[in-house]
Structures are given as C-alpha cells and as structure tokens.
Amino acid sequence: MTKPVQVLDRVIIRFAGDSGDGMQLTGDRFTSETAAFGNDLSTLPDFPAEIRAPAGSLPGVSGFQLHFADHDILTPGDAPNVLVAMNPAALKVNLRDLPKGGSLIVNTDAFTSRNLEKAGYTADPLHDGSLTDYQVHAIPLTTLTLEALKDVEISKKEAERAKNMFALGLMSWLYSRPIEGTVAFLEKKFAARPVLAKANVAAFKAGYHFGETTEAFSVSYEIKPAKLPPGTYRRISGNLALSYGLLAASRLSGLPLFLGAYPITPASDILHEMSKHKNFGARTFQAEDEIAAVGAALGASFGGSLAVCTSSGPGIALKAETMGLAVALELPLMVVDIQRGGPSTGLPTKTEQSDLLQVMFGRNGEAPIPVLAAATPADCFHTAIEAARIALTYRTPVVVLTDGYLANGSEPWRIPSLDELDEIPVEFATEPNHEDEYWPYLRDPETLARPWALPGTPGLEHRIGGLEKADGTGNISYDPENHDKMVHLRAAKVAGIARDLPPLQVDDQEGARLLVLGWGSTYGPIGAAVRQVRARGGKVAQAHLRHLNPFPPNTGEVLSRYDRVLVPEMNMGQLRKLLRAEFLVDVAGYNRVRGLPFKADELAAAIEPHLEELGDGEDDGAGLTALTEGANHR
Amino acid sequence: MSVTNGNGNGAVKAAERPTGAAMKLTAKDFKSDQEVRWCPGCGDYAILSAVQGFMPSLGIPRERIVFISGIGCSSRFPYYMNTYGMHSIHGRAPAIASGLSVSRPDLSVWVITGDGDALSIGGNHLIHALRRNVNLKILLFNNQIYGLTKGQYSPTSELGKITKSTPMGSVDYPFNPVSVALGAEASFVARSIDSDRRHLTEVLTAAANHKGSAFIEIYQNCNIFNDGAFDLLKEPDSRDDNQIRLRHGEPIRFGAAGGRGVRLTGEGRAELVDVAEVGEDALLRHDAHRQDPSLAFMLSRLSHGADGPTPIGVFRDVERPVYDELLAGQLERATAKQGEGDLDKLLHSGDTWELT
Q1: Within an 8 Å CB–CB cutoff, is residue A439 touching chain B?
Q2: CA distance linking residue A131 with residue A17, whole number of Å
Q3: Which of B71, B98, B110 has the most A C-beta neighbours within 10 Å, making it the best mutation to test the interface with A?
C-alpha cells in the first residue's frame, strides 16, 4: 500500500521540546539527511541559556528550525509549516509562530495535567478546540516508542528517551528523507553501548514505518534536490567554518596558530574545535579570564604565531585595554566577537549585532582597528582568512564579527579546493634596517606596516611597549609633534587598507532608487526580503558590507547613487551612525533587537513604505508568481 | 626549538646560528642604549645591575632572552635590557609572557613586576601562571608602595600605613607574597633583597636553573615614597638579627654567631628559638625540595613584610611538569597519532555530497 506523494518546492519544520528531549540532535540529524538528499537548506537552533531548566517548563523549551528547498534559499524561514511539539510547553512557546492551517504534530503522552499546568494551560489545548485552525496530528509518541522497544533490554527511562528518534523517523518518512545516514550515525554514537544503538535505531525505524502505515497521514511529501553550483558539499555551521578558516589561515601564512580563549557562549565551540587539531600545530590556551586570553594571544604574536582570541561581547569589553596595546605594539592579532544579546550578560544564547560600535571605538585613545563581519555561516571561513591577511600584512589587531545566529546556524557549503585560497605572504625582519641598527617602527612606505622581528633573531633585539614611541626608532617619546604624527600614522595605516579591498558590489535593479545595505548575518533575511519585494514589482538595490573598517573604497560613491539608503540592523542603528558620520548621508534604519534573526516578511514590509514614499512601489503585480521566500504558500 | 616560519624568511635560521659568542657576553652586553630614568637612589638600579651582571652566566644568547613587564616603576626594566622586551599593560605581564613562552619554548622568558602590578591589578594572572607552571621567571619588586602614581598604599603595605590615599592609616590587610605564591602552587619560590647583590645573584641563578615557573620576591627600597621599609634586614646593626638565610639541607639558624634558630612547634607552626635553650638538634632543617609546601608556608609566616626576623633565600624548589612541555607533548602526540594536519581532508570531513 503506497500512499500518494505530493511534491513541494520548500518546507520549514520546527522541532520543539524540552531541553532534555534531544531536539537539537533530532534537528541536526534531519538536517544531515536533508543535506545528503541535495536540498538547499538553512537552520536556526534556538535553545535556552539554562543547561536544564526545570523539565516541562516554558524556559526549558529548546527548538530547532530547518528550511529546505529545491532552490537556493537564504534564511531558516520566517514561520514553520510544520511544528513538532514534544510537550505542552513546547506547544505554548511555539504555536504563535505557526500560521493558521499549518501542520502540528504533538506527543499526546506528554499532555498530562502536571505538564499542562507547568506550561500554564488551564485546559488541554488538544481537547478544548483551540487548535481547530491547524492540521493536528495527535500521536502518542512515548507509548509508541515504548511499544517498539519492548523487546530491547533497556530501562523504561532509557526507552522513553528514544522518543525523539521515533519522531525523527516519522518526519523522515513524511518528507521522503534517506535514513541510512542516521542509522549509521546512531550506531557510531552509541558504539560503547550497543543496546542503546539498537534501541535508538529501532525507535527511528518504528517512527518511519508508523508514518507509512498510520492513517493519520494520508500523503507524504517530496522536495526535489536543489540546483546549486557543482562541487563537493558539506553542511557547516558558522563556528565550525570560522575554526576551519583559522586553520586555513595558519597554513596559508605558514605561521603556527595560537588561540587564547575563555569559555563564553556562543564562542566556546571554536575553542572546543580548535583544541582537536593539535596535529595542525594549533596551540589552544584556555586562560584564567578574558584578559589573559587576549594577553596570551598577544604574547604569542610577539613570538611569531598567528594569534587569535575568540569571545563574545562581554569578553570583548574586558579585552579592550589589551587590544589597545596591540594597536600600540602594531602586532598582528585576530579578535573574534561572536555577538550575542546585550547589554551586560543580556541574552547569551540569542543573536544580536550590537557590538559594532564597541569594537570600533571601545578603547582609550585613538586606537583604530580594522573590522570585518561574516554574512553567512559558510562565509565565516573566508572572513577568517581575510582577517588574517589584513592582520599579518598590516601588523594590526583585527576584529571579526559574527553572531549567535551564524555561529550555530548551518548551511550547505561548497568546499573550496586549496588552490582557490591565496597564500598570505609574511616576512620577518632578519637584518638591521637602519644602518647597523634595527628600528622597530620604520614603516613600509606602501602599507605603513612596521617590520616584525621575532625574538630569537640575533642582532635585532629591541623593546616595544604601550608608551608612545618615537617614529622610526620606537624609543619612548613624549614629544608633542611625534605623538601627533604617530596618531596620524596609525590612523592612516588602517584607513589605507581600503586601497587593498574589493569594491562594494551592488545587486542593482534598473531604476532602483532605494538601496538596502546590510552587514553581518542579516545578509540572508535582507536578500530574501529583496526577492519578495522585487517579485511584487518593487525596484530595490541590495548591497552587503563585509568590511566595516575601513569601508570599501567606493562605499561613499555607492551611497550617493541612491535617493534613499535603508540599513536594517539587529541593533539601534550602529552601522547607520557610522555611515552618517563618514559620508554625510541621511541613512534610514530598520532596527529590531529581539534576539532572533529578522524575518524576510518583516523586512519586506519594512522596505515597502520607503518605495511608496519614493514612488517606486509595486507595479501591476508582474513577477508575483516568482518564488518568494518567507511568504507561506503551502 | 624553533618557531614555524613565515613564507620565505630567515628568522629561524638566524635563531639557530651557533651560539658560541653568547658565552663570552659580559654585563655590558645586556645594557641597552636607553637612559635609565628611575629616581636617584632607587633600589631598582641595584636589581638591574645584578640582573645584567648575572645574565652572561646563563650561557643563553641575548636574542633568546625576553623581558616582559607590566606597569609601574619596576616595569620600565625591559627598556634597559639589551634583549627582546615588552613593556605591556598593568598587571597583564604574566598572561602575555605565558602566551610567548608556551608558543616559543626556545626562549628564556622573564617577567618583571611590582607589588601593585602582580598582587593587585594582576593578581589573577600571577596565581594562574604559577599554578600552571609555565616556564617563566617572575621577579616581583616589592617596595610596599605605589611609586609611579606617587605614593598610595599597595597590597603589601602594612596595616595602619599613612599614605596619600590613607591619611588615617591603611585598613587593608596586606598580602605576604611568598605565602601567596606557595598557595598558588608555585614550584619555585624565593625572596631576596635589592642591595644584597651576592644573595640576589644566587637566587636568580637557582630560579634560572629551575624548570617551570619561578617566583622571586625582591625587597626593593623606594627612597622617595617608602624609604627604609627594609632597613631591619639591611642595616649592619640589625640585619644579622633579622635575616634568616634559608639554605637547603642546613638547620635554619640566624643571629649573631647563629645563636637563634627556627623549630617546629607541636601545633604545626614554625617558631623562633634560642639555640642555646633548645639545642641544635631541635632546629628545623630546611628542605626546599620537599614536595609538600606546608613547611615552606610555615617559614613564610615567620614574618609579614620584613617586620621582624624574615626568611630570605629559596623557600621551595620542586619539580613539576611544565605547562609548555605538556602542551608541546600533546602536539607531538597528536601529530604522531593522526599524522600532520591535512587541511583538505579536514574540510572534507563529515558527511559530504557531490553536485554535478
């Protein structure tokens, strides 16, 4: 008995349950199956800051959203088409995001009076008629899992814990996912306890077969593979891509990698990842605090390492003085800020773009530092390499900004071949550069970078420090003219990097008078919103900045080309402020700080009024049939 | 022994040149061309001179020696040494030096710090560097005052001290730096005095020979803001009665003709005794190599800031695995086990798929 298969172009699924229900693992496996199948995809894990908030409580709900399609997509999707809710709390927290008519799969076993009470329900939503607008599939997932595992010799508690695999199996059937990868994964994961491997595989397969046989689902769905550029692909998260980018930069520069870090969400995974790659010569140093982490990195830089420290906003605040020292010492140093919600401890597991001004200006004195931001999870790889190139070429600290969304979100990545990556040439000083003396601040006339003489090089012994130095000799100098000159030289060095940057590319549209300009992780939502607006006939140009200090050399010219510039940011308008200050352009903003990435619908709606004011609004609806992301059309 | 190289440079080759010339170095070779700018009469001059005089005995070429300091009067020190050096920021020298030492095990890395720098703003870095046993030689110039900021009390100033920020006397109980270092699991802990060049040289030599972190508290006179703080240990008429010179393997005796000594009490405390009263056999025999730090700690409690008879010398000198070597060992083992890192293979790890 084969059920009918309906073909869809894209689906957004959200798995939600208690922190202890294994939703991240479930989402992750479904993503791997989907990647293996060849769909384009984008994911958004959303988990609480507490490791284990009380079971069944609202703060304890953990979610994982996956958007996959037969075409290229840019975001994890605005609203789910399907919500899997493993308990009442998960339903309560997530139902508001599910559009009317959406599919809802709930584990009825978890809808006990106690769990309902913990979630704040006074009546059981499965029976009080409040879900009539949705396609509800009420399934006793726990009971079915226990039934499937009755012959496997594990405790009832362990058997119950396999219910997420039952749910995964069911969803895998529903969306025609291949299952071999998950079976192999489970066997490997539980290799130490084969009985658990057996139980999880059995639960997974039972879920799959349940889908086939139950009458609850009359059809299954198929989403054809996406047409992406040819190549070898893998799925990659931002933190992993960044880690690989650092290792690649180490190889490309020929310098050993040194990572100083102190555990902090959402950056710790980079420390974990890098600590696995000691065979790449990568040294990781878990320091006693954020200050020591950057200090140790700076010390390693003095010794000739490619020095990196990774952190998030609160940690960056503590590193400010040392970053200023790196500016004075003019040594290469990479500081990676995985931004999260602030101020203070803020929202550790949520995303935000509110550290731009901190990394630009959060230091005493005139202390310019180049700043770069990654646009997508995979882009973290290339941004890390580009940051290393700037740091090493210009002998300067560099900040790389990503955020919680990029760090934990993932997308397919066409793996570059190593020949696609340019070497990063680094030359150390080996000989005196001023008659028979070595002057540590005698600059390269082109880049204004100072020479880098490593301890261990005979004859070049020298001292550097945080006190102002005389131009050239590097000796301590309190001379007013010299200080003025050094301040200007340091500024000119960083500003001069612009000459070395690719121009800002604009995805223009004939007749567009509005430019939507973004930076960082808003790339996906802005792109999806622009597609929507264009599909409705709106004329809009889009550009995205990777380099935030200095800006690409043509930035001012690009801004001047449009009647209006709109900068959506997950902050109060930090890039907008910089653009206004730098280019005297009256940039408009769209600013929300909800701890979540923008939705495409939301941004499209924010763009429309600008078009209307400019008289460039929708025309007669040409292009309405084109694919628009974010609009629900299932 | 060498740093991995950048593309096309000769730094490593240079670093590995024969070092015969280094053996013929003199104190003069370690003097930089910078004018020394401490106040006339400052104890720092004597320490600088002792260090410059002792450096040639290390047999290490100048280019392999690095001095890293924080902020404070003492932290100007690196500018005056003709080695590699960094004058960093307040309190952070142990952290910066740790990164350098860990990534460059071929270097001899020295930290110069003061009582405010190491024990106040940088306390955290000091204790963690000592705990890890990073291969650093840390010289703490203790003058019991903030000199560079012109005379506020420091974390080693005595209780009740009148300073610019404590006109009614300090109510801050001071640290005993040797006790702090011992409590922080330091594997080498010593104390010396700026003006006693011979003793200081002995202690510096022992520290240099030690593998791992070495901590030396050096009593240093600030003749401007805290003059005479250590006179009890320095003046001819009082020093014999107040310097308890610790020598490994010997009974601890001091005073004119060794008439006084140290013995353990029943309740786990060291006390000062008259040798004539208790007999020579009752004296504590100093054992710097004892793994357990309790005895060294007891000795450190005999005084609290040179306020009476005060032990100087090496309190503790034990072997413990060195952080730098442990980490380097992990890199070697990982490479032996997994092979040299293969970037292409790493990028292709995990589930991949082909699109044509």
Answers
A1: no
A2: 18
A3: B98
- In this structure, are strands A283-286 and A333-339 parallel, antiparallel, or unpaired? unpaired
Q: Is the dihedral of CA A115, A121, A123, A124 positive or negative?
A: negative
Q: Does B20 contact A at CB distance below 8 Å?
A: no
Is B191 an interface residue toward A (CB < 8 Å)? no
DSSP 3-state of A548: strand
How far does chain A reach from its first CA to its final CA, in angstroms? 26
User: Across the strands, what pairs with B264?
Assistant: B270
Q: Is the pLDDT of residue A373 over 90?
A: yes
Which residue of chain B comes nearest to A292, CA vs CA? Answer: B95
For B87, which of A225, A415, A463 is closest by C-beta distance?
A: A463
Looking at CA atoms only, how far is residue B149 from chain A in angstroms? Answer: 16
Choose among A428, A461, A467: nearest Cβ to B11. Answer: A428
What does the alpha-carbon distance between residue B167 and residue B160 come to, in Å, rounded to a whole number?
Answer: 9
In single-letter form, the type of residue at position A334 comes to M
> Strand A371-373 relative to strand A333-339: parallel, antiparallel, unpaired?
unpaired
- CA distances (Å), origin A576, targets A337, A526, A568, A602, B112: 20, 16, 9, 19, 45
pLDDT digits (tens, 9 = 90+) for A557-577: 999 999 999 999 999 999 999
Which residues make Cβ contacts (< 8 Å) with residue A81, sequence separation at least 6? A11, A12, A13, A99, A102, A103, A632, A634
**Cβ-based neighbour number of residue A26 at 10 Å:** 23
Q: Is the interface score ipTM higher than 0.90?
A: yes
Contacts of B342 (CB under 8 A, 6+ apart): none
Q: Which residues of A touch B148 (CB under 8 A)?
A: none
- To 5 degrees, how large is the angle CA B213–CA A290–CA A455? 50
Q: Among B104, B107, B355, select the one facing A233 at the smallest CB separation.
A: B355
Query: What band does B6 get if pLDDT is binned at 50, 70 and 90?
Result: very low
CA distance A69 to A7: 11
Contact state of A287 with B95 under an 8 Å Cβ cutoff: yes
pLDDT digits (tens, 9 = 90+) for A58-75: 999 999 999 999 999 999
As to burial, measured by CB atoms within 10 angstroms (0-12 exposed, 13-18 middle, 19+ buried), residue A244 is buried
The closest alpha carbon to A372, from A416, A352, A342, A402, belongs to A402
Give me the helix-helix angle, A379-394 and A238-253, nearest 10°: 40
Cβ neighbours for B28, distance < 8 A, ≥ 6 positions apart: none
Q: Determine the residue among A463, A475, A478 to mutate to test chain B binding: the one whose Cβ has the most chain B Cβ atoms within 10 Å.
A: A463
Q: Does any CB of chain A come closer than 8 Å to the CB of residue B257?
A: no
Chain mean pLDDT for chain B: 93
